[in-house]
Design goal:
Shape: globular
Largest sheet: 6 strands, mixed
Structural class: alpha+beta
Bound molecules: cytidine-5'-monophosphate
CATH architecture of the largest domain: 2-Layer Sandwich
Order of helices and strands: EEEHEHHHEEEHHHHHEEHE
Helix content: 25-40%
Length: 284
């Protein structure tokens, strides 16, 4: 009897995100650096007679349409298995926040099924790209990576340990599709930053200051236009000398701290402004 597999599915932050062009397939080409954060969902996958995905607490994802269900169906199709598994996701990562929660869950499901069905031969990165653009990064299990194409080219990067960050959540949700649709060429300013960060990680030269200087995201303009909370929150934090960057397509914002003490100070200042701000660590 094959046993159940339980994996932690971490959230991510995009440390820099450059949109380099629009493709014929409607997606955009990216150059971005992903880093995992110590905030994670717990994903348990077990053999079962049919497909059932249980997400607790209920976050309002329509049953069957979630990325974990899609991952089971995609893996079943390429391996010739029945699309049958019991998936239980304990959600801690906020949804539609730019933290990659649903994609990370899907990546964990693919890894778990490859193990349960003993199919180490499947090209999980290529399969992941058919589920969503962020899924290839998560399926590699990398802590940090440079990601290109629409998300399917993943180049894991070495990291030396932890960087302290403060994550600022919004109650607003932003659909990735809407944010990309709002993107204009004039929003581009992050191309060099993604490459600078890739080199710094490759050579072990990452510092909090470098991360702050490179934290640029070409989706910031679109996210600010669609979600006034983003511009408003960044302006209020800037008045206290705190630079907030956008993760992915938002609306989640983050600040890079010098150390844990600095992260706790930043979180305190932001909470006094009425924001939901918490200190975390991220691979760096
Ligand atoms: O791949 P995923 O389903 O996560 O993407 C959601 C939407 O975001 C896509 O339908 C597309 O409109 C947009 N997108 C994009 N370029 C990317 C990733 C996503 O235009 N590299």
């Amino acid at each position: 009897m094959t046993r159940a597999v339980t994996l932690l599915a971490p959230a991510k932050i995009n440390l820099a995100l450059a949109v380099t062009g629009k493709r014929d397939d409607g997606y955009h080409d990216l150059r971005t650096v992903f880093a995992t954060v110590d905030l994670a969902d717990r994903v348990r996958v077990a053999p079962y007679r049919r497909l059932e995905v249980r997400i607790t607490p209920d976050v309002g994802v329509p049953p069957g349409d979630d990325l974990a269900s899609r991952a089971v169906r995609a893996m079943a199709k390429v391996t010739g298995h029945d699309p049958a598994a019991f998936v239980h996701i304990r959600k801690r990562i906020p949804v539609a926040a730019g933290l990659g929660g649903g994609s990370s869950d899907a990546g964990a499901v693919l890894r778990a099924l490859a193990s349960i069905w003993k199919r180490g031969d499947v090209d999980l990165v290529a399969l992941a790209a058919t589920i969503g653009s962020d899924v290839p990064f998560f399926v590699t299990g990398a802590r940090v990576a440079f990601v290109g194409g629409r998300g399917e080219r993943v180049e894991p990067l070495p990291d030396r340990g932890s960087i302290h960050v403060v994550i600022v959540r919004s109650r607003a949700r932003l659909a990735t599709k809407d944010v990309f649709a709002e993107f204009r060429v004039a929003d581009r300013h992050a191309a060099a930053s993604a490459d600078v960060l890739r080199d710094a990680f490759a050579h072990g030269q990452v510092t909090p200051q470098l991360l702050r200087d490179s934290a640029r995201n070409d989706l910031l303009g679109p996210a600010e236009r669609l979600c006034p909370w983003v511009a408003d929150t960044r302006a209020r934090a800037a008045a206290h000398d705190i630079a907030l960057a956008l993760s992915g397509s938002g609306p989640t914002l983050f600040a890079i701290a010098d150390d844990r003490r600095d992260a706790l100070r930043i979180a305190r200042v932001l909470r006094r402004l009425g924001l939901s701000a918490h200190a975390h660590t991220m691979a760096g």
